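Students often ask why we bother encoding 3D structure as a string. The short answer is that it lets us treat folding as translation between two languages. Here is a chain of 373 residues written in the first language.
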Amino acid sequence: MLANADLHIHSPYSIAVSRFMQPEELIRGCVTKGIQVLGTGDALQPDWLAGWEPYFENDAGITIVPQTEIEDKNRVHHVVLAEDPAQFGQLRDLLAGTAKSFVTSGRPHVYLSGEEIARRAHEVGALVGPAHAFTPWTAMYAYFDSVTACYGSEPIDFLELGLSADSSYGAAIPDLYDIPFLTNSDAHSPAPDKLGREFTRFDLRARTPKDVLAAVRSGHVALNAGFFPEEGKYNRTACTRCYTQYPLEDAVSLHWKCPADGGQIKKGVSDRAKELSKGGIARPRPPYLHVLPLAQIIQTVTGASSPNTKKCKEIYASFIAAFGNEIAVITDIPLAEIQALHPKVAEAVSALRENRVVLHPGGGGKYGTFSLV
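And here it is in the second language, the structure alphabet:
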């Protein structure tokens, strides 16, 4: 069976996370979005994990997978997935004394290397892989040129692409030929333009955490779905102050200092991926579907200042009432049916499905934008 999964979110115990990130809200958000499998986020935080206990079995039928993100001593972030909440209690014990606290921080900073974290995760039967691997901050490829440089002799079970990369960015990197790619939201809010904004569609034997992890291990990914990489705020090489974009060779000749304002020039994900490919041949990957949140589409076609305006929310609610969930609207519902409800949204969904999208790439910390044609 096919199931849409978002296996990386956060809790209010992490920095800059909405207080509305609560199990009940998240389950409702999954139903609205069209997500059938959800990571818990922050499973090393004991109170947060305990708060999920009544919801591992829920009336909505959402499969809940225990999940956390860890920052290592090199500032690299790692996603850890487990079948059973008890495995995170075991992992917490193995990591005892390596972090200031697992209570005060949902995403703990652990004073161990990626290899040491991965080894402990594997000891308890969990899966581990780099979070948002291509992002130029707190990511594997921000600080290392290969998987082994980060993880040593310990294997990884998957790689999370992150919002600034799609499958094409990693397909030609020899290091990753046999590594499954995951696409997750890294959501800090249950709002429909955040939760499930990127998702992985798995081919599962059954909708259980055990079967989800088995699908990750075996690479039974039917589809990756996410933003156009150009929308990411670090897609192109650019100044982190004024956001002026530079060709890579110019950034090098300028010694990574912007002549306009003296700001730091940050290497973009696009240039970094080309650099890491080293002339490798792109290997086939599951289809990658570029999507935009329905709330963002509605905001664009109505000219609203925010997807959270009353008008945008009313239009969004009408689509969910008519078609069940957002992902179905973006990917499957016939355009004629969408047009009957809202012609402008139908035009935008048609442009998206047919890849008639003009992209204005982001860089230096500024998100990219798009227009529909």
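Translate back mentally: The mean pLDDT is 96. Keep this in mind for the problem set.
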